[in-house]
Automatic annotation (TrEMBL):
Stretches assigned to the Nuclear receptor domain: 17-92
Descriptive protein name: Nuclear receptor domain-containing protein
Keyword set, alphabetical order: DNA-binding, Metal-binding, Nucleus, Receptor, Transcription, Transcription regulation, Zinc, Zinc-finger
Record localization: Nucleus
SMART domains: HOLI (SM00430), ZnF_C4 (SM00399)
Single Gene Ontology MF annotation: zinc ion binding
Residues annotated as domain NR LBD: 138-363
């Protein structure tokens, strides 16, 4: 089934009615006592945390012009104070533990950009990348020895890790880590169990495969391996297809070339991952779930288009279309992988698959 995309419109009406008391851009609530945008919030916090000091070159009158105000850090900070912003200075140990701000060196645009849309995009990308790093860390560490089904994990996604991963069990953990990743989003947790099961059964194998391709690209390989460096297929499955290994190799190699051609960055991957997951065309889900997925897919579609505009300018629509077309590659190859495992399961009934793998591979 093709991916269903919704219109690129995600700015709530309420966001357009609140203005930052410092710079007059769109505000998103009170920060440190003043109605402000995220850029002014971060600017004020940075000045206080780092104990910075500035001097105005324009007779301390820059606040009369928003453009001049943003360029003059002394007047901007003074206006923050005038509007009632206040925070307690942090102790030295707290300063050391503060998270790093996003910067262009990290592959994300500066949060202090005067363009509010860019600022919002930066924050979205930063949060997605942090969540994906946590997912990847979980993948390469530990997991529960219990043989959980998909429904059991959805009911209790926070199972405490108690077993070091062995090479033979990467498939289970890859699926598990993706379920935990998506389950961290509040709009997913609010869905009913029936809708969640259908959404995760439809998406988990596809997007775990997509993640494997992206990991292969980041590792500068041309062939997908598991995080431990072993083949992604069980040895028994490789033996079964030893006389005709073409499909096994193609599934692990071919789509990587397409990612290289499109120069897929980690930011693009994080946004596409959410666009593909929030597919309102998933069969048999409720109308309420379909509306929720449509709404959130529009958020990530619009963010990806903005990112393409910033990085590819006039070619943004074409690049956006090319990136979304990756879904066909992912779906086709993940379905072929599923067929391979089903045939293997039929020919090797003695091989014991864990419940989660059976649930997501549909056998």
């Amino acid at each position: 089934m093709a991916l269903s995309l919704v219109p690129l419109d995600w700015s709530p009406i309420s966001d357009r009615t609140k203005r930052c008391e410092i710079c007059n851009r769109v505000a998103f609530g009170k920060h440190y006592g003043a109605l402000s945008c995220y850029a002014c919030k971060m600017f004020y916090r940075r000045v206080v945390v780092k104990k910075l000091s500035y001097t105005c070159r324009g007779f301390n009158e820059c606040s009369r012009s928003p453009k001049r105000l943003l360029k003059c850090q002394a007047c901007r900070y003074q206006k923050c104070q005038d509007k009632g912003m206040y925070m307690e200075p942090l102790e030295e140990d707290e300063v050391k533990s503060e998270p790093l701000e996003a910067s262009s060196d990290d592959g994300i645009l500066e949060l202090t950009s005067p363009n509010q849309k860019i600022e919002k995009l930066c924050l979205l990308l930063k949060n997605l990348k942090i969540m994906d790093k946590k997912r990847h860390s979980k993948l390469k560490s530990f997991y529960s020895l219990n043989d959980e089904s998909l429904e059991a994990i959805l009911i209790s996604p926070g199972v405490n890790p108690d077993h070091q991963v062995t090479p033979e069990e990467w498939a289970f953990l890859a699926l598990y880590s993706h379920i935990s990743y998506f389950h961290n989003f509040e709009f997913i947790r609010e869905l009913g169990m029936d809708d969640k099961k259908k959404i995760f059964q439809y998406n988990t194998l596809r997007l775990t495969y997509f993640c494997g391709l992206m990991r292969t690209l980041n590792e500068k390989r041309m062939r997908m391996l598991n995080p431990g460096g072993q083949e992604i297929y069980p040895d028994d499955l490789i033996d079964l297809y030893r006389t005709n290994p073409h499909n096994l190799a193609r599934i692990c190699c071919q789509p990587v070339n397409r990612l290289i051609e499109l120069k897929v960055t980690n930011e693009k991957y994080c946004l596409m991952n959410m666009i593909f997951f929030c597919n309102p065309a998933i069969p048999d889900i409720s109308d309420e779930a379909r509306l929720i997925l449509s709404h959130h897919q529009s958020i990530y579609c619009n963010a990806l288009f903005q990112y393409c505009e910033l990085t590819h300018q006039q070619n943004a629509p074409t690049r956006m279309t090319d990136l979304i077309s990756l879904y066909e590659y992912i779906t086709k190859n993940s379905q072929e992988m599923e067929v391979l495992f089903m045939i293997f399961h039929y020919n090797a009934p003695h091989f014991k698959f864990r419940k989660l793998i059976r649930d997501t591979f549909h056998f």
